[in-house]
Amino acid sequence: MLLLGLTVVAITGLVSYAAYNPRLGANDLTPGKGLLGFYLFDWPTSPVWLYRATQGTHVVLGIVLVPVLLAKLWSVAPKLYEWPPVTSVAQAFERLNIVLIVGASLFQFATGILNIQYAYLWGFSFYQAHLYGAWVFIGAFVTHVAIKLPTMVRSLRQRSIDQVPEPPDPDELAPTNPGPVSLSRRGLLGLVGGSSALLLVLTVGQATGGALRRLALLAPRGRKYGDGPNDFQINTTAEEASIGQEMTGPSWRLELVGASRAVLSRAELLAMGQHTEDLPIACVEGWSTQERWSGVRLVDLAALVGATGARAVLVESLQQGGPFSQATLSGDQLADPKSLLALGVNGAELSLDHGFPARVIVPANPGVRNTKWVRRLTFHDGS
Amino acid sequence: MAADDQQSAWRRWYGAGPLHLVAIVVNLAVSGYALSRIVGVPRWGEILVWLGGAIVFHDFVLFPILLVGDWTLRKAAGAMAPRKVPWLNHVRLPLVVSALLLLVFFPLVLRVPAQAYQSKTGLTIDPYLWRWFGLTVALVAGSAALYVVRLVRSRRC
Fold first, then answer.
1. Looking at A167-171, A225-229, A292-296, which range is the least confident one?
2. Which residues of A touch B74 (CB under 8 A)?
């Protein structure tokens, strides 16, 4: 179960890296990645819930696996105090492999779980540490599974789950002289399974929304803001981004750069063809929420400056500095008719915290890459 | 015959078949390469400290705390007269689950990132402590209620 679960968490994690379209502009937050940042495709825009599903799975499943991981580590803990520690070259390698697995898995769980709670207890870049840590883990994990596969198959075939005492196994994990049993095997499995189920109930609502969100009592993003059109999860308040009323008032203009240039006021944008789309905001932190956005299609804005068919667009925010004050979208993302420069949400004007006067919303795009408080769109050929 | 001898000599020296070594080399190549990527990024020393620290924290803090806590409870249970329905698991299981919730969500519960939480979400971090506390009370109460049910049943039979 842990094997399957960790595989899914690792793959959805790598998928999330690809979802940032690291090929383009300054999107890649791990510039020194070398061979580790490979990905096979440009991130698609359909289905619109794609990133919501992959990243929700990554985060929620990661949390749900905590009890399983701890139970696994604690069930093999006696091996830690084995003496003599090394009996052959092969075994020395295996122990090194175990150190890598244990260190990297605890590291990945700790950094991921702290990151979604904004507890940045470190000075390094989360993106870099979590990506490279993932590969340390993957390398060790795949080898561990390959080495232990014959043992696993054998024991799954032979051992009846209720047999006490357990038959001796080659790795000597079964206790040879067990103490009095105070919790049955079924009880322990119940404890681990029950804890995982409880963690699932307490967090999954932040990814699914709806009625389950009420049960997401301990999830960082399980909370309700109110009943208004703008009462949904905010990612970084305007105050935090140093966005003031004076920057977003009547003097605000959107600058378009393509084959030609154009400068538009909010009233001029509202006078263009308006479109409405139901699209999720899905954050790398594993929460998401679907809302009804309305605004101007990005392709229509490209057409205004003779940039139809552009292969990329650089979106810049009023926000100064920080990795998410700008984002480069791919040609496919730009061309999707659902991709909007949103001016309103749920029938109302955008609130300042949600990106007033205008924000990008692109289907299946990671939340932070739907830039808020947009000031300029530069269409180019993607180089 | 000679091949068999060679193979067993290899096994004696290495301790496993040649495929084992292949798997290990792949592992060291991938993990080692990833570690080499860490070296050089800003504050990379700190990343390595966290990688090693995770093992130390788990093996020498978390695990011993669990063992000592469990040992103390068991000793207390053993010192008392045996009951018809043992109470040990009705005490330690809700506590273990509550401790697990705290382990996973301690930043929110203990309000570690109070400022960052507010600037990210626009909400205060305050409710989490009470939510965790409420869940703990519910777990303990649920477990106690179950114990009473088992006790009543055991008397009836």
1. A167-171
2. 182
Instruction: Inspect the interface and report whether the beta carbons of A89 and B13 lie closer than 8 Å.
Output: yes
Three-state SS letters, B45-87: HHHHHHHHHHHHHHHHHHHHHHHHHHHHHHHHHHHCCCCCCCC
pLDDT beyond 90 at A173: no
With an 8 Å Cβ cutoff, are A36 and B44 in contact?
no
Quote the CA–CA distance of A281 and A206 in Å, as a whole number.
12
Task: Answer yes or no: do A124 and B74 touch at CB < 8 A.
Answer: no
| pLDDT confidence band for A210 (50 / 70 / 90) | confident
Note whether B51 contacts A: Cβ–Cβ < 8 A.
yes
Residues 42-71 of A with CB under 8 A from B: 63, 66-67, 70
Q: Which of A118, A132, A233 sits opposite B34 (nearest CB)?
A: A132
* DSSP state string for A96-151: HHHHHHHHHHHHHHHHHHHHHTT---SSS-HHHHHHHHHHHHHHHHHHHHHHHHHH
Of B14, B29, B37, the CB nearest to A89: B14
The pair of structure tokens assigned to A221 is: 């993003």
At A121-162, the pLDDT tens digits run: 999 999 999 999 999 999 999 999 999 888 888 888 875 555
- Determine, for residues B113 and A118 on separate chains, whether the beta-carbon distance falls below 8 Å: yes
Average pLDDT on A186-196 reads 93
Q: Which residues pair with A316 in a beta bridge?
A: A326, A376
Asked if the Cβ–Cβ distance from A240 to B119 is below 8 Å, we say yes
Strands A374-380 and A254-257: parallel
Kindly report the number of other CB atoms within 10 A of residue B38's CB atom.
Answer: 21
Q: Is the ipTM of this complex over 0.95?
A: no
Q: How far is CA B68 from CA A70, A71, A76, A218, B89, in A?
A: 17, 17, 18, 28, 16
Spatial CA neighbour of A299 closest among A362, A247, A220, A239: A362
Question: Would you call A299 an interface residue with chain B, using a CB distance cutoff of 8 Å?
Answer: no
- Answer whether residue A172 shows pLDDT above 70: no
Q: Specify the DSSP class assigned to residue B14.
A: H
- The rounded distance, in Å, linking the Cα atoms of A3 and A101 is 12
**CB-based contact A21:A161 (threshold 8 Å):** no
pLDDT in tens, A247-257: 999 999 999 99
